[in-house]
Amino acid sequence: MKNTVLTFKQAKEQGKKLSMLTAYDYSMAKIIDESSVNGILIGDSLGMVIKGEEDTLSVTMEEVIYHTKAVKRGAKSALIVSDMPFLSYHVSIEQAVLNAGRLIKEGGANAVKLEGGANVAPQIKAIVDAQIPVMGHLGLTPQSVNAFGGFKVQGKDESAAKQLIEDAVLLEKAGVFSIVLEGIPEKVAELITKSVSVPTIGIGAGKHCDGQILVYQDMLGMFNDFVPKFVKQYANVGTVMREAIGSYVQEVQEGTFPEEKHTFKIDENELKKLY
């Protein structure tokens, strides 16, 4: 059954936890979708894990549309949510609606996600009024990395925590169907989750959120140079991949691959005609 914004709403009402992962291409989207995940996010995290950038700020609308198309072909059941990249919704409400519409029309997304609280509530309302579902995003919002002075946990004092709670309520009033809570104390995330009727999706926000999301490269252990505190590695796929590729390189160099079973034949009579 296809996951929809209604699926997310009903999950919170029924106390069922939601699961989400990122994906950026057809192959991974197909594997993730077959694992019964509720939602797939084409995150602007592609700037870091796909493009190798230091942050998400360089990601463009065209890149998110491209990757959304690929994911759409592989995912049949998961709700497909596309990130609105930096400066795609900041300049004007009209621009925000048009860009959100592109992710739906050109990319094939089921919903869009954008970062911020009260400052983006007007854009969210306008996008929702255009019949486009919106997922909010509060806390450590990566597009604000320069304003935050780095990737730092948010909401650690009373004032900041209250602001997050107020922003969550404002986002719900603006019409979001769910809110990502990133990099905030667990107890603050719990308070936010109890303050809104829409599901909260946590990443580095503790177990009391209505669901969880991770970047798939992190949870599969594809990179070992840095593992965020909030990530649990469910496998060490990076090691398996490096070992397999190393074996391939060695066999090619030694001439043991390809073997006879990997080759095609030609009839001997046809072969003689070539000489």
UniProtKB/TrEMBL annotation:
Pathway: Cofactor biosynthesis; (R)-pantothenate biosynthesis; (R)-pantoate from 3-methyl-2-oxobutanoate: step 1/2. It is an enzyme of class 2 (transferase). InterPro entries: Pantoate_hydroxy_MeTrfase, Pyrv/PenolPyrv_kinase-like_dom, Pyrv_kinase-like_dom_sf. Belongs to the PanB family. 3-methyl-2-oxobutanoate binds at residues 44-45, 83, 113. Its cofactor is Mg(2+). This is 3-methyl-2-oxobutanoate hydroxymethyltransferase. Transmembrane segments: none annotated. Keywords: Cytoplasm, Magnesium, Metal-binding, Methyltransferase, Pantothenate biosynthesis, Transferase. GO terms for cellular component: cytoplasm. Homodecamer; pentamer of dimers. SUPFAM superfamilies: Phosphoenolpyruvate/pyruvate domain. The active site is at residue 182. Gene3D superfamilies: Phosphoenolpyruvate-binding domains. It is found in: Cytoplasm.
